[in-house]
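#onboarding

Welcome to the new folks! Below is a worked example of what a typical request in this channel looks like: someone posts a single protein sequence, and someone else replies with the predicted structure as tokens. Don't worry about understanding the tokens yet, we'll cover that in week two.

Example request:
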Amino acid sequence: MAEQRQKHVPVMLKEVLENLKPQKGEIYVDATFGHGGYTKAVLDSAVCKVIALDRDPKVRVRANEFKNTYGERFEFRAGKFGDFSDLVPEKINGAVFDIGVSSMQLDEAERGFSFSKEAPLDMRMSCEGLSAKDIVNSYGERELADLIYEYGEERKSRQIAKAIVEYRRKKRIETTTELAKIIYEVVHHRAGEIDPATRTFQALRIAVNDELGELERGLQGAAERLLSGGRLVVVDFHSLEDRIVKNFMKENGGKKVRISKYAPELSPQDGLFSEVSKIIVPTVEECKVNPRARSAKLRSAVRR
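Example response:
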């Protein structure tokens, strides 16, 4: 068990705490509980309370361990962070999001998130609803191509979609490795480049879990629940997510107006946020220790 937990290293933990600034007696939300890395760090850094959210039913065992350790300072609420407003009706002092698939889900081959491990083609974070297998076996060629291009930013989306449709005329696509082999016939692996299956698997995962829609709703819900001076911290891992986070914070950062012709500084007005941070990326040292951190970006904002 201890060996397994060492794999689940929370990304940019130091930077998350520096931007969230946990304080005694305050309430924070970990909107993507997973294995609980951020939750543990927040609870250990101040005598505060953390409300943890997660749609994955398999994290309940870990949540129960936290409850036994931290008692009333920890509360788990099952659900999608897109339903933040419903799950968290009370006002809070801060919220942190770690967007995308968790390391725990990637490490569990049977979940079907990884193309490097043979498993049923599933990818459902909540273990219910439409699966990746359903999509690749039922969507039309054009629909598949559009999905792979939009969510995976894959330039050969049309060729991959065509190969999928041709393959399934013979038999249904059942496993992760079966789909990966189809993709490899279209996009050949070159040294130094990402695995050719990465973008298509990303696209399917995003579609299955409505990740971008959940992110937009979750950010809005969290911002509405923040008290004055409350902090929103978001760690994301690819351009589609980061664009949403960047635009949300920019649009809600308020307009810059000069409060006096004698004042050299511009003052933000009318936005939800009084402060929006510049983008923060992981250190070279962290990327060496934890390769999953390489594409991470952190953005934060402070409620007006």
